[in-house]
Design brief:
Shape of chain A: globular
Oligomer: homodimer
Number of domains of chain A: 2
CATH topology of the largest domain in chain A: Rossmann fold
Strand order of the largest sheet of chain A: 2-1-3-4-5
Structural class of chain A: alpha/beta
CATH class of the largest domain in chain A: Alpha Beta
Strand content of chain A: 5-15%
Largest sheet of chain A: 5 strands, parallel
Number of helices of chain A: 13
Chain lengths: 300, 300
């Protein structure tokens, strides 16, 4: 007997594709959907279900929404072709995009009205961990939502932080994490290029700073990209104007000034405007290098 | 036979006092000097030499300068009562303050003219590590300066990064590290208080974020102070307007814009202006809390 679970993954970008692969690997009957038909066909060739959306949606146990933002999440759930009204009672929505906590609470309320569980479940970890079923998920929702989502979480996540029994808490923690992660990437780029103006090479920076009080998880993960001159996007520059924008939006609604996050957002926005939006987010260093007339390391 | 080495430690603040204690513990004949006579007497009661400055200075093998900044360093070395002209040939100066790299190069040149070695040796690690002889030192200088300084380094440091054969490289790396460390402390405070506006408690922040991509060395070290409501100064707020000021000064001289460091400096300067300059640097969170009407955790 195969695994009886059936899920639909909406959004087959770098994160969603990896999540869908991890679900498949766990023996789950997985349907992948995306506006890019080529990605859908690629996933079907990888072993994904060939069932059409209209047929699949009435029988899936869970839908995993791995889109860019709140607007896309709402469109998938309740838009013109929104899936929630077609889901069976007791199905669960795992909403993985970074969204404002208040939006998560609204979506949960609307899902509940349709007899559908909603797990506020923003993800963290990057595309490699997504493909390996090793994501971190900052989850909150009703105990029933957790129970319904458990087999899916087991397939796609290494770590599930259970942050409370109502939607919103997961997204709040995700926003806190994104504030830090975005600032740390931009600060790494600022410090590394500042060092170059003072005779500190990228390689020397990489050798010393990870052993010092100035280190961060993001520094250790991203600084090697700059030292290697490799901007293959694991997570792209364009993530950050979006995620730090969400942070600043909800901060603003709470009358909370976040000047460091704002400064970091400016640098990512400048990198995006300069044409680096699709590159690895470490390419924010190019903005610093260009403004100071520095030459960054080339690929070897 | 006792250890034949004799050193003078100039500046018996929280870092200098610990360094002097570590030298004593290593069996070094250690003289401590400070403008605060009470600190000098305390150190003598702890086992420090009672020799007067004018007598000691002509016979010490090394002087360790643990003052606040470049101006105080220059005053100790070459001011009205500056020690360098009185040092014996072949003695070594260990200059531990955070100073601009160009200043370190100037001091080294002037010391060389007196036949005295100069080790550019900014320190990192905090007062506890200073007292335990476990500092990290970002050192650069001539091979002869390293050789002369070695027994002192062995007594006071756990890690000595050897960053090159001329003064300046150590201070450059220190500036890079301070940029990151200062930004990370302020970003931690920003994220933690932002989280409070979204229902993320200080304790929940501490439980989750150190396991996530948003973590940093400084976050893990300082966030517990806020969660505990304990602002006993291990390293004080007032360090940061100074050290980030040095970073921005030398960045400016290189026409390098450092907007994230500038934003962090503003927050520390605001904390200092508000009367928190002598508290632990995690007290920068109070600026965020006050501007957003939040109540930080009280001591339990």
């Amino acid at each position: 007997m195969g695994n009886p679970l059936k899920v639909g993954v909406f959004g087959l970008g770098s994160m969603g594709y990896g999540i869908a692969q991890s679900a498949l690997r766990a023996g789950i009957n997985t349907c992948g959907f995306d506006v890019a038909q080529a990605q859908v066909e690629r996933f079907q060739a990888d072993g994904g279900s060939k069932e059409k959306l209209a047929d699949a949606v009435t029988s899936v146990d869970a839908v995993i929404i791995v889109v860019l933002n709140a607007a896309q999440t709402e469109s998938v759930l309740f838009g013109e072709h929104g899936v929630v009204p077609s889901l069976k009672k007791g199905a669960v929505v795992l909403a993985c995009a970074t969204v404002p906590p208040e939006f998560a609470r609204q979506m949960a309320k609307q899902c509940t009205e349709h007899g559908v569980h909603y797990l506020d479940s923003p993800i963290s970890g990057g595309s490699v961990k997504a493909a390996n079923g090793q994501l971190s998920i900052m989850a909150s929702g009703t105990p029933a939502a957790f129970t319904a989502a458990r087999p899916v979480l087991d397939a796609i996540a290494e770590t599930v932080f259970e942050l409370g029994d109502s939607a919103g808490a997961g997204s709040a923690m995700k926003a806190v994490n994104q504030l830090l992660a975005g600032v740390h990437i931009a600060a790494m780029a600022e410090a590394m290029t500042f060092g170059m103006t003072q005779g500190v090479s990228a390689d020397k920076f990489l050798e010393i700073i990870p052993k010092c009080a100035g280190t961060s998880w993001m520094l250790e993960n991203r600084a090697p990209h700059i030292a290697a001159g490799d901007y293959t996007p694991h997570s792209s520059v364009d993530i950050w104007p979006k995620d730090l924008g969400i942070v600043l939006d909800i901060a603003g609604q709470a009358n909370f000034p976040a000047p460091i996050a704002a400064a970091a957002l400016q640098q990512f926005a400048a990198a995006s405007s300069a044409g680096y939006g699709g590159e690895d987010d470490a390419a924010v260093a190019k903005i610093y290098a260009e403004s100071a007339g520095l030459t960054l390391p080339e690929p070897t």
